[in-house]
Amino acid sequence: MKRSEINIIIEEAKDYCKKNNFKLPPFAFWSVQDWKNKDKEKVDEIITHSLGWDITDFGLGDFKKTGICIFTIRNGSPENLKLGKGKLYAEKVFFLYKNQEVPLHYHWIKVEDVINRAGGAVGVQLYNSTKDDGLDSTIISASIDGEKIDIEAGKEFFLKSGESITLMPGVYHRFWCPDENVLVGEVSLVNDDRNDNKFYEPVGRFPKIDEDEEPIHLLCNEYLNFIDG
Fold first, then answer.
1. Strand-by-strand arrangement of the 122-128 sheet
2. Which of 38, 55, 85, 135 has its CA 20 to 30 Å from the CA of residue 181?
3. Would you call 3 helix, strand, or coil by DSSP?
4. What one-character-per-residue DSSP string does 94-143 give?
5. CA 32: distance to chain centroid?
6. Over the stretch 65-95, which tens digit does the pLDDT of each residue have?
7. Residue 229 pLDDT more than 60?
């Protein structure tokens, strides 16, 4: 992805959050120079737990078709889950464009609530995974806003603004926006994007960036390239 494209996406995501009165934390707005001035030890939680901006086209080269703009607000460590103490949870917000989708994937560990915070509908498609990571034809047992429901494998349905679904480990899920941009929230167990994502079709997770201009904000996997000490 080009840095200029990433910069535009971040600006549009910030504007959409502002439009919908969703307040991002201060570090969402830190510049490169702000990061250079930081004491590494004081911002270690942000660095270590990959808080902040996370934008990917999944290596497919067409972000507006297949991609996602994430801002991770809070997150714990996978080690916390093993120990059963510390910060055991995470929170994110996604900005999705009209006609954009997030491809089928599941998590081995993470349980997550996906919430339509504002905007249009969110399309959802689910499958249980098989032992060899295929798509099972069995019924998915899910919870939509606390109400247990059974969902036919592969059936497309939609979450309206304010609605949410709980997704359990091993359940493949795909999201898309059929009619207009949308702000999506996620509340979950600790998030580990490097080790707890299984995509049905192989994709890339963190894009290689063509530095055609300077970044306005750093991505969550870039901090150590800029911060001193």
1. 157-159, 122-128, 171-176, 101-106, 198-199
2. 135
3. helix
4. EEE-TT-EEEEEE-SS--EEEEEEEES-EEEEEEEBPTTS-B--SPEEEE
5. 22
6. 999 999 999 999 999 999 999 999 999 999 9
7. no
Tell if the pTM clears 0.85, that is, is over it. yes
Token reading at 94: 């996604």
Q: Strand pairing partners for 144?
A: 147, 165
Per the CB < 8 A criterion, the answer to whether 87 and 191 are in contact is no
Q: What is the pLDDT of residue 228?
A: 66
> 75: burial class by Cβ within 10 Å (0-12, 13-18, 19+)?
buried
Which among 118, 131, 138 is positioned nearest to 183, based on CA atoms? 118
**Burial letters 155-167, b for 16+ CB under 10 A, else e:** eebebeeeebbbb
- What span, in angstroms and rounded, lies between the C-alpha atoms of 121 and 77? 32
Q: What gap in Å lies between CA 69 and CA 148, rounded to an integer?
A: 30
Q: What size, in residues, is the chain?
A: 229
